[in-house]
Amino acid sequence: QVQLVESGGQLVQAGGSLRLSCGCAASGCILGGYAVGWFRQAPRGEREFVAAISGSGGRTEYADSAKGRFIISRDHAKNTVNLQMNNLKPEDTAVYYCAAVESYSILYYTSDRFYNSWGLGTQVTVTS
Fold this sequence. Notes:
Layout: E1 4-7, E2 11-13, E3 18-24, E4 34-41, E5 47-53, E6 60-62, E7 70-75, E8 80-85, E9 94-102, E10 117-118, E11 122-127
Parallel strand pairs: 2-11
Antiparallel strand pairs: 1-3, 3-8, 4-5, 4-9, 5-6, 7-8, 9-10, 9-11
């Protein structure tokens, strides 16, 4: 397991963009060897899948609500996995979590049960 930390959440108007980052909270962690997912949980809602990237090969998957608007990517130089969110909507308001599991395969994981490391989350609020 690794310690993860999310950043980039803030208040934004509908139609705006945000870039969330997921990085290691401690030294010695290299996210390049991990499959990473982004999840979110809205007030009074359940945690839901947003986007995922495989540990190897750069394969990605998105929830239907994120397709065409969000992009998950790796920044190997900064050792982060980013979530670029465009055309934000009020229904995107949630706490966003990144999760990771060690993996060198081309598989990505859309279910939270596959991940064993989680960050504490970053709040995204989209106003209309």
